[in-house]
Amino acid sequence: MKFLDQCKIYLKSGDGGRGSASFRRERSIEFGGPDGGDGGKGGDVVLLAQDNLNTLIDYRYQQHFRAQNGRGGAGANRTGASGRDLVLRVPTGTQILADDKETLLADLSRAGQRVTLLRGGDGGFGNSHYKSATNRAPRRADPGWPGREEWVWLRLKLIADAGLVGLPNAGKSTLLSRVSHARPKIADYPFTTLHPQLGVVRLDDETEFVLADLPGLIEGASEGAGLGTRFLGHVERCAVILHLIDGTEADIAGGYRAIRRELADYGHGLADKPEIVGLNKIDALEPAEIEQKRRALARAAGPGSKVLPLSGGSGAGVAQVLGALAATIASARAGSENGALVDAE
Ligand SMILES: Nc1nc2c(ncn2[C@@H]2O[C@H](COP(=O)(O)OP(=O)(O)OP(=O)(O)O)[C@@H](O)[C@H]2O)c(=O)[nH]1
Ligand SMILES: [Mg+2]
């Protein structure tokens, strides 16, 4: 699944319809009173969160969206028809940001949530509205109020339970493809994964969770090095981080700390999330080496962290890692109302 995480679109609510300036014309009445109806209201721009969508890819092909304008009023006090609302369906978890890419306009975090982002313009008054004791034949009728227009950003943060982070080549995608039906690209060069990938991990009938494979991070990512940290937003709502370390690298503790620094620099609570450290690729290591590296990592990670050896390639130790992830997710879920949203594969 290619995952588009943000896009910019133009939205416009409908203009209100023009009020009518009209006078009653009947053969029996010489000077008929004003009977111009009001214009109809323009359509609203509404966003609707849906669970069965998992990307913003549709918005890459169409970028301009307009709700219908209200119709003009007419004689015989007929109000113009309202313009139809424009309802845009977006995946649950989509945030709507203003043009500045910072101001949050709406956060569609629940399936079925509806937000009226831009209200349509009201219709103008027809001349019958201006009839009074002193003015029995007003000619005034108003144009409709214009609709509102705005460029907004749609940003989707995947709602995954666990997020895979690590240096490029740590074996993140290999692990995801072993434990789920996801089939991310795997290769022995850095930055193979360019977009987040989601997989559903099913341990037994009752236990499943969503694991997100993220593009590799490098030192300086928070300043934009490599692919930067633009995908770390997806980890913000994860219950747990699985930090994978390539055990065949020389300086594993240094690599561990480099990623921790980037998580801390990114902020948004990532550094405080529960972390499980995976010493990966142990199929390529001698047992003594595994033990020595596990200890080095445990020292670097500190007492709060769990270090588990595994191999996404051979499958060794994978069950223990998944069990630890599921246990951490279960305790986080117990503490919050929000269950996991299994929304993509
Ligand atoms: N020996 C061994 N090699 C592995 C293992 N897991 C992954 N590899 C190899 O390591 C290389 C990188 O694997 P990927 O799964 O693409 O790594 P990644 O972390 O997703 O890399 P990026 O997407 O670039 O960040 C590939 O050549 C894999 O075959 C493992 O458990 N053991
Ligand atoms: Mg990858």
In short:
This protein has 345 residues and is an alpha/beta fold. 17% of the residues lie in helices and 23% in strands.
Characterise the protein shown here.
By secondary structure, the chain is α/β, with parallel strands linked by helices. The strands form 3 sheets. A 6-stranded mixed beta sheet has the order 10-11-9-12-13-14, with helices on both faces. The longest helix is centred in the C-terminal third of the chain and has 17 residues. The chain is rod-shaped and about 110 Å long. The relative contact order is 0.15. The structure holds guanosine-5'-triphosphate and magnesium ion (MG).
Q: Which molecules other than protein and nucleic acid are bound? A: guanosine-5'-triphosphate, magnesium ion
Shape: rod-shaped
Q: How confident overall, as mean pLDDT?
A: 89
The helix/strand series, from N terminus to C terminus, equals EEHEEEEEEEHEEEHEHEH
**Count of DSSP E strands?**
14
Amino- and carboxy-terminal Cα gap: 7 Å
Structural class of the helices, strands and pairings?
alpha/beta
Strand order of the largest sheet: 10-11-9-12-13-14
Total helices: the number is 5
Low-confidence stretches: 337-345
Task: Give a quick account of the main beta sheet: strands, pairing sense, barrel closure.
Answer: 6 strands, mixed
Radius of gyration based on Cα positions = 29 Å
Portion of residues in helices? 10-25%
Strand content: 15-25%
Oligomer: single chain
